[in-house]
Amino acid sequence: MKRSAPMKRTWFKRKEPKPFALADRKTTLRRRSKKPTVAEGSKYLAACRDEPCYLRVEGVCCGRWDTVVPAHSNQSRHGKGGALKAAHAFTVPGCFTCHAWIDQGPAPREEKFSAWDLAYERWEPIRARKLGREAA
């Protein structure tokens, strides 16, 4: 299809603002939930220091205490989703190899979730004692 005359160029026209449009928009915007501070989360991470591996995945665990780090839950019920990490309250001490198995391992998701849940059941009362409160 050929045009005999070039298209006429026009400027974009702005719409006239409605008198209450801005006020309506402000009421519909929700406030973001407050992110926990570093100090609030660091107590859970500090509780994992100098602990053995609680994940203890059979055939995977290296048993080296010097590689133990806090392993966050990968379950959406604990706040994990998209690029968000689960809350620091849902961490378990795990060695490097068990942590890698939980995060990137080839095992089915249900198997990883059950291994993490079992470790959390063992870890939660000990962590509560370290933090000076009752286990939930």
General description of the model:
With 136 residues, the protein is mainly alpha-helical. It has a domain at 56-131: prophage-derive protein ybcO (Erythroid Transcription Factor GATA-1, Chain A, 2-Layer Sandwich). It is built from four helices and two strands. It has helices spanning 21-28, 38-47, 96-104, 109-131, and strands at 69-72, 91-94. Strands 1-2 form a two-stranded antiparallel ribbon. The longest helix is centred in the C-terminal third of the chain and has 23 residues, at 109-131. The N and C termini lie far apart (73 Å). The model has no long low-confidence stretch (mean pLDDT 83).
Return the structural class. mainly alpha
Using the CA coordinates, give the radius of gyration. 26 Å
**Ends distance:** 73 Å
- How is the largest sheet built, in terms of strand order? 1-2
Mean pLDDT: 83
Q: Can you identify the CATH superfamily of the domain at 56-131?
A: prophage-derive protein ybcO
The total of helices stands at: 4
Instruction: Report strand %.
Output: 5-15%
**CATH class membership of the domain at 56-131:** Alpha Beta
Instruction: Let me know the largest β-sheet.
Output: 2 strands, antiparallel
Q: How would you classify the quaternary structure? A: single chain
- As residue ranges, the low-confidence spans are none
At CATH level 2, the architecture of the domain at 56-131 is 2-Layer Sandwich
